[in-house]
Amino acid sequence: MAAKELTERGHEVLVLEAGPPVDPARDFTHHRFPFQDMYRGFGPPGWKQHEQWMQDTAGAYSRNFYIKDGEHPYTTDPGKPFLWVRARIVGGKTLHWGRLSWRFSDLDFKAASYDGFDVDWPIDYKEIEPYYDRAEEFIGVSGASDNLWYLPNGKFLKPMALTCGEQVLKRGSEKLGWPGITSRVAMLTEAKAHHRKSGRAPCHYCGHCGDGCDVGAMFNSVASTLPVARATGKMTLRPNSVVRHITVDANSARAKGVAFVDRVTREEVEVSAKAIIVAASTLESTRLLLNSKSRQHPAGIGNSSGMLGHYLVDHFGGIGGTGFVSALADREPVNEDGKAAGLFIPRFRNLEKNKQEHKFLRGYGFECSAGQRMFPSAARAFPGFGESYKKEVRKHYLSPVFMTVRAAMLSRFENFVEIDPGGVVDAWGIPVLKIHIKHSDNEFEMAKDAAQTAEGIMKSAGIEIASVGGNLTVPGRIIHELGTARMGNDKAKSVLNKYNQVWDCPNVFVTDGAAFVGSANQNPTLTILALTIRASEYLTDQMKRGDL
Amino acid sequence: MPATVDRKLHSLAFIMEGSSFSGPLDVDQRTFKCRFKPVNASIENGKLILTGSLDLTGRDRRLRRQENVRATLAAIQGAVNGRAIPPVEFATRPQPPAQLPATPLTEFTNNEAFAGVMYLQVSDLKAPMLGIPLDVTKVQLNCRLYPDSDLEREMHWLYSSIATSLLTEPKDEAAAAKLIEPLVARFKR
Fold first, then answer.
1. Run of H or E residues at A230
2. Of the candidates A70, A79, A434, which has its C-beta nearest B110's C-beta?
3. Nearest CA in chain B to A49
């Protein structure tokens, strides 16, 4: 997004990508049935555990979008694992992201003012609202205006439909006073003129969004932002460029450029720039800043406050329920392979200022879905085999419903990353991160409440409950790692100012999830995009004024 | 600044294979199979040291070997799938079911946690002996612990338990030392 915004404003931009280039025609293999694949859609035996053991969402069709864990170490303390999903390829994680696009509200930006924990963001909703508008209009977000003050409306394309099971769950939730809404997803239910101009087409509901989208219906940078930036003639994209560190001008504290190694040829290269946008994904960005030590920045760029690396969070999931809508049993099976949205039950806890209703702060929502795909996942829940087993699976084809929590994690100083003190490096000799994170009592109490409310919603909907409860997902599994280079109003307590600009090094901007002050419980990508547009505008203004 | 080329071998991606660790190495469009076979283990200055041989075998099937290679455990990466199963002699009697916790837990943490990767550092390799044109003065072995046989399951539990004792504060070197003999015994299988 920064490349698009900056080239459109007339800047020459060099985009360095650590991974290989991607060619949708060659690399997206999703329109193939498993029987066309040598390993029937499972990939070669052992590949996952031997090569990509942390790449939880990588499948046989999408594994080239993810890193190989053997080349990309990181370390953790015993007993405190972290699951780090990483993409090093042009397009990055936008090639397979979940696409849920929610705005934050002042319930999130001003959370500390509501409950007294930690600090507020240095921005409020009104400041960022126009940038949300621009981000949504450009990427294309389908959804409905639900008029919830804590989940603001936006500039939506027409929403997708809910399935029958989702409608049943929605009614059950609303009986309890908790709205259920259609998920807002960054997918084109209709293509506007500016979408068509960059070659994007409406969704054809093939249902393989995580394996790459060859028509660009799903927002990803390969189909959306990079073509626009390329069309300006001002962008140079250099794949296979693994950045080691930011270089610093000997006469000032400002950044001079970056040093990188070519992933394939191992050539060491240095380039210079007037300004540097760090958007390598939350933890990779912070790793780069921590590795950028110099006389002027002895603890890394942006770390004069000692805050760089701290306040790591990830949403948690893993708590929820499954069940069956008996009224939908025995109906003619319908495959819902193309279903991309689903039902969302937004946060309903702790919505009032200075009034903590439960044993925890903040809140959670539920992502819900119902229906089966061509290879029905619910089939695993039934015992038996043969004809009677098949009849049972067929009987319940339409009736399964699933609920899973998306919950906030409190930002705590003690959850942090550092450069591994044991000297562990990656395949290019670049020092790696050691990650320290664990859940606190607040998350455990929230999980307990979520399990109870999931059960309550299913009962209210008249659903036959198959399972309820669960355990919190290991940190990292939701792939919403955020924080570690937080923005703030106080230079002594933050890494970035409110424009994503590094306090200590004003020609460096960090425009990814690292900048977040808190996680809220909404998916973060839309907020990252909005902040990036705002930061790009600010950078341009600063340059025009001669401040950069 | 004129461009240079990085000719250092920084790390080798290995996976457990019996009591050894093995993986590929690509050098100048040649592929070698590498294997680190520990024959001894010790704890020195609170760190696990594995001593053994490092082999490289090219397509010409010629074996290049360096003996007495010392690999020091620097760190681990916690695992997020499967579980580590203790060998029979370390298996505890089945306990009565514990009282269910009042709140849910985080998966793969605390008592359910174990190591998924060991990072071992080697600083005594000799490139001429191994026949590769790279700087091998400091090489890291990224040893993935994913067991696929009874022996590997036992090794996994032993490595994981030793790493936990040595890398968790407060360190319990005595607990780790008790596991060295059973570990070395399995090197000989």
1. helix A225-231
2. A79
3. B146
Inter-chain CB proximity A82 and B106 less than 8 Å: no
C-beta separation of A452 from A465 below 8 A: no
pLDDT tens for A53-97 read: 999 999 999 999 999 999 999 999 999 999 999 999 999 999 999
* Partner-chain contact A53 B144, CB within 8 Å: yes
pTM of the model: 0.96
Per-residue CA distances from A195 to A188, A205, A228, A237 (Å)? 9, 17, 10, 22
Query: For the purposes of burial, counting CB atoms within 10 Å of the CB of B49, is it exposed (0-12), middle (13-18) or buried (19 or more)?
Result: middle
Which residues in B have their CB inside 8 Å of a CB on A?
A: 1, 3-8, 10-11, 13-15, 23, 74-81, 102-110, 113, 115-117, 119, 121, 140, 142, 144, 146, 148, 163-164, 167-168
Sign (positive or negative) of CA dihedral A283, A284, A285, A287: positive
User: Could B11 and A71 be called an inter-chain contact, meaning their C-beta atoms sit closer than 8 Å?
Assistant: yes
> Given an 8 Å threshold on Cβ–Cβ distance, is B3 in contact with A438?
no
Q: Is the pLDDT of residue A377 over 80?
A: yes
B6 contacts in A (CB within 8 Å)?
261, 266-268, 428-429
Token duo for residue A453: 């409310």
User: Chain B residues with CB inside 8 Å of A445's CB?
Assistant: 103
Amino acid at position A525, single letter = T
Q: B5 and A265: CB-CB below 8 Å? A: yes
CA–CA distance, A247 with A254 (Å, rounded to integer): 9
Identify the CA nearest to A235 among candidates A9, A23, A27: A9
Q: Where are the beta strands (DSSP E) in A77-211?
A: 181-182
HSE (side-chain half, CA atoms, 13 Å) at A162: 22
Q: Which of A267, A420, A447 sits opposite B5 (nearest CB)?
A: A267
Distance CA B141, CA B117 (A): 10
State how far the Cα of A182 lies from the Cα of A159, in Å rounded to an integer.
Answer: 7
Helix (H, G, I), strand (E, B) or coil at A368: strand
Task: Look at B13 and A68 and tell me if their CB atoms are within 8 Å.
Answer: yes
Helix (H) or strand (E) holding A168: helix A164-175
B contacts of A422 (beta carbons < 8 Å): 74-75, 119, 121
Scored b (16 or more CB within 10 A) or e, B142-176 reads bbbbbbeeeebbbbbbbbbbbbbbbbeeeeeeeeb
Tokens of B81: 């799938």
Contact indicator for B5, A267 with CB cutoff of 8 Å? yes
What ipTM was reported for this prediction? 0.95
Cβ burial of A172 (10 Å; 0-12, 13-18, 19+) is buried
And the tokens for A324?
């069956």
Q: What is the tens place of the pLDDT at every residue in A171-180?
A: 999 999 999 9
